[in-house]
Amino acid sequence: MATEIKVPTLGESVTEATVARWMKKVGEAVQADEPLLELETDKVTLEVNSPAAGTLAEITAEEGSNVGVDAVLGLISEGAAAPAPKPAAPAPQPAAAPAPQPAPAAAAPTPGAGVMPAARKMAADAGVDAGSIAGTGKDGRVTKGDVIQHLETPRRAAAPVPAARPAQPSGPRPRADQEERVRMTRLRQRIAERLKEAQNTAAMLTTFNEVDMTNVMALRNGLKDQFEKKHGVKLGFMSFFVKACITALKELPAVNAEIDGTDLVYKNYYDIGVAVGTPQGLVVPVVRDADKLSFAGVEQTIGNLGKKARDGKLSMEELSGGTFTISNGGVYGSLMSTPILNPPQSGILGMHKTMERPVAINGKVEIRPMMYLALSYDHRIIDGREAVTFLVRVKECIENPERMLLEV
């Protein structure tokens, strides 16, 4: 008796994945719960473990295949390893057999055909004919994301415009022998889609300020050894910026809000996303209830999430639901940048490299360690006054760290 290997639940709003890599070959013995393959979604890469002990008898979804939730990936047979199955022999053909009949042409799509269940329900709730939406899923199936994009696209009198698809290859290239063509991963495609979505949807602006890092650096240098000895984690600058942002978010709740249709949703909790660069692309794991964590708790959480991100072990829960994001381009040497919003959030803080610069202090020129800060924000919900005030509050908290401790 064979046991099916199925695609597990992928998380909220994720309906498809790509088979990235099989770790076992047909005919090899496997143990129960042993990793068999990796699936890549538009958010994370996850391992699929063997549902039983036995032999990998068949692979039904090859590497590169797109598969939906609960789809069969392969079969596990009971018993020890067996030789890989041979391809089925072609059926003998009579000498005078008539020419084989061509397969019937695929029927023209009908409304509702090739539509994922979640997409069909969403379309029905919105009073939209799902069959009229161009699908970007496997075999042209309509996904939930296609329905969302269709609903967000302004209605036109002309025929519906198909959902945006990745640009097609440009054709023959004169120096193709000196180029390498690599298919974009699902994660990279999703990053591209979300960045473009942010630019197309939000009225995005960026405001800048600079912060004197003298006091916070002195505090960190004076206490970092005791901090690490007591808490088992290094004291970095990120915890100061997380706490500074929370102080500012409490004063200016619009920066912690989002637009949902015609509603403004103000969030009375502070789940701070911290952007992490990985070999696969940028991901934003979330520090839950960061306002309730100590400095040590923030540092420990960021450290654990960062390690999981680089190892490709983040869960869907750890990547979902942030209310505000912090991105530190300074670790790569960036002096100034304009970060792009992480939808549906309305604000993102960009940190940059700390550099010594001459500044005027009480009428005198002094050399101080300075950092440029950038706040990109959605002008539909956040006014310029609020954006500037937010950044000033962050600056004040970093330049006077005791403000965060005393909540003033």
What does this entry look like structurally?
- By secondary structure, this protein is α+β, with helices and mostly antiparallel strands.
- It folds into 2 domains: 2-77, RNA polymerase II/Efflux pump adaptor protein, barrel-sandwich hybrid domain (OB fold (Dihydrolipoamide Acetyltransferase, E2P), Beta Barrel); 189-406, Chloramphenicol acetyltransferase-like domain (Chloramphenicol Acetyltransferase), CATH 3.30.559.
- Helix content is 26%, strand content 25%.
- Strands 9, 12, 15, 16, 17, 18 and 19 form a 7-stranded mixed beta sheet that branches. Strands 1-8-6-3 form a 4-stranded antiparallel beta sheet, with no helix packed on it. It has a 4-stranded antiparallel beta sheet with strand order 5-4-2-7, with no helix packed on it.
- A hairpin with a 2-residue loop joins β10 and β11.
- α1 (117-125) packs parallel to α2 and α5 (238-251) crosses α6.
- The longest helix has 18 residues, at 214-231.
- It is globular.
- The termini are far apart.
- The model is unreliable at 81-86, 94-113 and 154-164 (pLDDT under 50).
